[in-house]
Amino acid sequence: MILRSILGIAVLTAVLWLFSSNKKAINWWMVVKGLGLQFILALGVLKVPGVSWAFEKFSLAAVTLLDFTREGSTFLFGSLITNTSSFGYLFAFQVLPTVIFFSAVTSLLYYFGILQKVVKAMAWVMQKTLRLSGAESLAAAGNIFIGQTEAPLLVKPYIAKMSRSELLSLMAGGMATIAGGVLAAYIGYLGGDDPERQLFFAKHLLTASVLSAPAALISAKILLPETEDVEEVAEISSQDMGSNALDAISNGTTEGVKLAVNVGAMLLVFTALVYGVNYLFVEGIGSWTGLNAWTADFTNGRYDTFSLQFIMGALLSPIAWILGVPPEDLLLVGQLLGEKTILNEFYAYVTLTDMKNAGLFTSERSIILSTYMLCGFANIASIGIQIGGIGTIAPSRRKDLSELSIKALIAGTVASLYTAAIVGLMI
User: 333 vs 193, 310, 314, 360, CA distance in Å?
Assistant: First the structure.
């Protein structure tokens, strides 16, 4: 497994090199330092007792906040939340409220200046280690806690004058990490009602988001090396989060509602589209050609039809293999990677939870590695989100955003896979 994880890191680096716009200008020493920073962070969080304990306490705080959300949800929805034996686990009522609450908490932390201090400290570490510009380091650190359209606001005054390499780093950071609100939703959904499992997934999801920030910068600098002079120092741009704490909570709540509705609507539409495409594959191609029966026989019944899920699993299972996934689970993890890239990570995490609850995985290692691989906004829809969001902040860079969008998608995807490979060395 360790050798496969090392092979995975080498293959991912080779893929980035292959798509690089300036292979001769790549700073390989920076890449080595970036991977080393990832390894040290992962080692500390997962293996060093003191650091691991601190991270577990931070994860416990996130789980405790989930309990607060549950109380608010129970007040509104009553037995729809508490009586899961009758109503089942209702996604709209159990999961989406956490997005709203965590958005409000994030807004409050920003208002009091707490979030800025944490972001600045993490940015300082990445800047000094990797010798990057201040603006791209701040944005990468900000992406650990806030979304891909909110993090650029931290460096709003600098975007118009960023080099193309810096701009790609900004976009890649947004693709490689996730926002605090949806992070909480994943913790609640993957962990279910079990506090221990919630804590387990909270720790891994938080680790994934932290590790993927430097990984995104590495990936971006291989794809588009820096060849211009950049500003080493940057300050976090001030944002009007409200006139007081209550106003900040209100603003955060409003943004959270928008995000929750967006997530719910996307899941509704994408789920329906997947079933529509599968109707063509299963009832059409699979039925006419006998591929349904062949698929069921080939997978020993894990996939009973020639579906989109099976196709994605088969195409992407080699990636799962080089990252150290046990052979029995390659198709499942390949399917998850496909769903994340073509649809979105939320849809993929829902599928991961369903697979986990159904006992389809033969090894928990597969579940853990999948958690890391899926932890990022790198999907096709995010291209439009970034062009629209960042383009609104800096209209003069809209053309560059469009031209760099595919590279950003590649960098964000590889960053999450880098993180999974690093963690695969330790579990």
Answer: 24, 11, 10, 11
Question: Residue ranges of the alpha helices (H) in 47-113?
Answer: 49-77, 79-82, 84-87, 91-94, 96-111
Q: Which domain holds residue 63?
A: 2-248+372-424
Its pTM stands at 0.88
pLDDT tens across the length of the chain (427 residues): 788 999 999 999 999 999 999 999 999 999 999 999 999 999 998 888 888 888 888 888 888 887 788 788 888 888 777 665 554 556 677 777 887 888 888 888 888 888 888 888 888 888 888 888 888 888 888 888 777 777 787 888 888 888 999 999 999 998 998 877 778 788 888 888 788 898 999 899 989 988 999 999 999 999 999 888 777 766 776 666 677 888 988 988 888 888 788 778 877 888 888 889 889 999 899 989 999 999 999 888 888 899 989 999 999 999 999 999 999 999 999 999 999 988 888 889 989 999 999 999 999 999 999 999 999 889 888 888 888 888 888 889 999 999 999 999 999 999 999 999 999 998 8
Longest CA pairwise span in the chain (Å): 65
- Asked if 71 and 205 sit in the same domain, the reply is yes
Two tokens at 417?
A: 């896979």
- DSSP sequence for 29-54: HHHHHHHHHHHHHHHHHHT-HHHHHH
Residue 146 falls inside a structural domain: yes
Per the structure, the count of domains in the chain is: 2
391 vs 405: CA distance, rounded Å:
12
